[in-house]
Amino acid sequence: MGISNGMKAIFHDATHGFYAYHLANNLKQHCRKRCDVINLYYCDTYAYLVEEFDRIMFEMKSIHSKVHGELVKVGIQKFSHVLYLRKRYHMMTTNIAESMNSYLLAIRKLPIASITEFIRDLLQRWFHGRRCNTRETPTF
Q1: Both 119 and 61 in a single domain?
Q2: Cα dist from 121 to 33, 66, 90, 116, 135, whole Å
Q3: What are phi and psi of 93, to 5 degrees?
Q4: Which end of the chain is more exposed for a tag (fewer CB within 10 A), N or C?
Q5: In whole angstroms, what is the distance from residue 106 CA to residue 102 CA?
Q6: What are the E-state strand segments in 1-140?
Q7: Is the pTM of this model over 0.85?
Q8: Is the residue at 63 inside a domain?
Q9: Helix/strand/coil (H, E, C) string of 94-130?
Q10: Could you give phi then psi for residue 11, rounded to 5 degrees?
Q11: Nearest to 43, CA basis, from 54, 32, 28
Q12: In which region does residue 103 sit, left (phi positive, over 0), alpha (psi from -120 to 50) or beta (all else)?
């Protein structure tokens, strides 16, 4: 049984997404002299509004239709944060620093003891939730 078949059998709800980094590296190889295309790709990948994503994709199509076609072929929901089918790591990011920063924005002005307690509680809830999910996962 291959890895993808095993993943489908065990993790029924798992979705597959491409890493923006790997797609960007492919773009850099194929469009070495087109910084505008690579910059648009990054803007599109990290767009937070569907309207913004659509506008940037339209601009990408007008300046480099081949890259646009390849991105659509890959599946825009696999690399776009705004159109990804699920949340990544409980938030729309794969970077733990960004995840923590987004949670800590509201409490930054509290005393350090309160911030530390908030972080401890947050991590305990995350790890407990993942542990419970893991216990329910069938194994072979």
Answers
A1: no
A2: 48, 48, 15, 9, 21
A3: -160, 160
A4: C
A5: 8
A6: none
A7: no
A8: yes
A9: CCHHHHHHHHHHHHCCCCHHHHHHHHHHHHHHHHHHH
A10: -110, 80
A11: 54
A12: alpha
| Cα 103 from Cα 119, distance rounded (Å) | 9
Site of tokens 């480099």: 64
- Amino acid identity of 105? L
pLDDT digits (tens, 9 = 90+) for 101-114: 777 888 888 999 99
User: Does residue 90 fall inside a structural domain?
Assistant: no
106, two tokens: 């509201």
What does the CA dihedral 67, 73, 79, 84 come to, rounded to 10 degrees?
140
User: Looking at the domain assignment, is residue 83 inside a domain?
Assistant: no
What total of structural domains would you count in the chain? 2
Task: State the residue range of the domain holding 23.
Answer: 3-78
